[in-house]
Amino acid sequence: MSLALRSRVDDGLSGRNQGEPEFLSAVAEAWENIQPVLDRHPEFLAANILQRMAEPERQIMFRVPWTDDSGAVRVNRGFRVEFNSALGPYKGGLRFHPSVNLSIIKALAFEQGLKNALTGLSLGGAKGGADFQPRGCSDGEVMRFCQSFMAELFRHIGPSTDVPAGDIGVGAREIGFLFGQYKRLVNRFEGSLTGKGLGWGGSQIRPQATGYGLVYFTAEALATRGLSFEGKVVALSGFGNVGFYALEKLNSLGASVVTIADEDGHIHDPDGIRGDKLRFVHDLWFKRRGSVREYAEEYRVLYEPGRPWAVPCDVALPTATQGEIDLADARNLVDAGCLCVAEGANLPCSSDAIRYLREHGVMFAPGKAANAGGVAVSGLEMAQNGSRCQWTREEVDRRLKETMSSIHKLSLEAAEAYGWPGDYAKGADIAAFLKLGNAMMDQGVV
Ligand code: 2IT
Q: 127 catalytic, yes or no?
């Protein structure tokens, strides 16, 4: 970003948010992308929309004490950043992972506000979580942690106030424990969380939504170049809540997924992860939280430490976490012949990686557009809870597909209208900013 531009949009941002590199970089990236809007609509600058949009409406941090199985008292730090409510109740996931800190949660909450704007549903932006590692804990420990976490969070959330969901480290088990404690504390059965079990207020397709949506979005992007997933080779990283269901959908569309990865390394299976292997991968993650090394041992394929991005592929789908594709990885992807990168995770690609991919003609789909399927189906879960009904699988899948298609169209049209044809990153930020910015303008100085 140029110096003149920086001073135009920064307005003390870095000074007020020291020690928060993830947050500053998420905002800088978005502000750079929306420059053409500011040139055409100086009223946003006059109303100081940028400074207001980069300041969370409320940030909650709290102590989460719990007792482990040995009787020792442990303490974690809980967060909920309620970023923007101009479009609806605060909405966004909870992440339990040792890397969680205020900077990451603010970055994710800021992104979530823009993402949610793209869904066209009435959803504000938020994110939360704790620096807690559920992996390696017993069910009892996870339950006691969730109950303690909710003992504080419950006073801040509600179906029309703030509706958390899952994210990394928060799946069906954790949502169950959190919901049980919430209901006990408020004495009301209501939709204050999404990702609930199908038998108690959950929606069809919610577990699959982010992965399926990612594939639907990417298929639309490929179609703009006359391509489809049929016969394409796909490199995938995380194989959990997002990656596994993407894997499933990709197989059904005739693609061949040749890699999966975890924090330590990746496997390369040139025959594709299909048939029985899919069940193995399912159990590896959802039952055992095991290492991909086990896959390599079971099917006698290559295991290597490090990321999977140097493997020859047509499409790369980072589905693990933030910061998993840097400039060196982007170079590897270009050299490996990759033609499209779509973010299933939030903020997996660094700014210089994104620039490099774009400069080398690789289609790039940003997470706030490509992975919005999860929160979109959360929005549908809220609608079903509000009317005390449950839609069929086909109905939810149809709406998910429609939503991804509409986000794709919105992003492309905004990119075209503001002078960046085909640039999904700029298009998504511009479309989201216009939706959120205009709502804030209409609602006055609040
Ligand atoms: O990053 C995300 O969009 C999510 N973790 C889902 C949020 C939600 O409220 O469903």
A: yes
pTM attached to this predicted model: 0.96
Residue 278 Cα, ligand 1 centroid: separation in angstroms?
A: 25
CATH number of 58-197: 3.40.50.10860
Task: Specify the ligand 1 atom closest to the Cα of 115.
Answer: 3
Q: Could you give the 3-state DSSP secondary structure of residue 377?
A: helix
Closest CA to 446 of 52, 41, 13: 52
Of 347, 415, 378, 336, the closest CA to residue 203 belongs to 378
Q: Show the ligand 1 pocket: residues with CB < 6 angstroms.
A: 91-93, 112, 165, 167, 194, 346, 374-375, 378
Catalytic choice (127, 196, 277, 435): 127
- Rounded to the nearest whole angstrom, what is the distance from the C-alpha of residue 225 to the centroid of ligand 1? 29
The ligand 1 atom nearest the CA atom of 206: 10
Torsion sign (Cα): 36, 439, 59, 365: negative
Whether the CB-CB separation of 130 and 101 falls below 8 Å is answered with no
pLDDT tens digits in sequence order for the chain, 446 residues long: 554 555 555 678 999 999 999 999 999 999 999 999 999 999 999 999 999 999 999 999 999 999 999 999 999 999 999 999 999 999 999 999 999 999 999 999 999 999 999 999 999 999 999 999 999 999 999 999 999 999 999 999 999 999 999 999 999 999 999 999 999 999 999 999 999 999 999 999 999 999 999 999 999 999 999 999 999 999 999 999 999 999 999 999 999 999 999 999 999 999 999 999 999 999 999 998 899 999 999 999 999 999 999 999 999 999 999 999 999 999 999 999 999 999 999 999 999 999 999 999 999 999 999 999 999 999 999 999 999 999 999 999 999 999 999 999 999 999 999 999 999 999 999 999 999 999 999 999 99
- Each domain of the chain, given as residue ranges in start order, spans 3-53, 58-197, 209-370
**In CATH terms, is domain 209-370 a member of 3.40.50.720?**
yes
DSSP state of 276: H
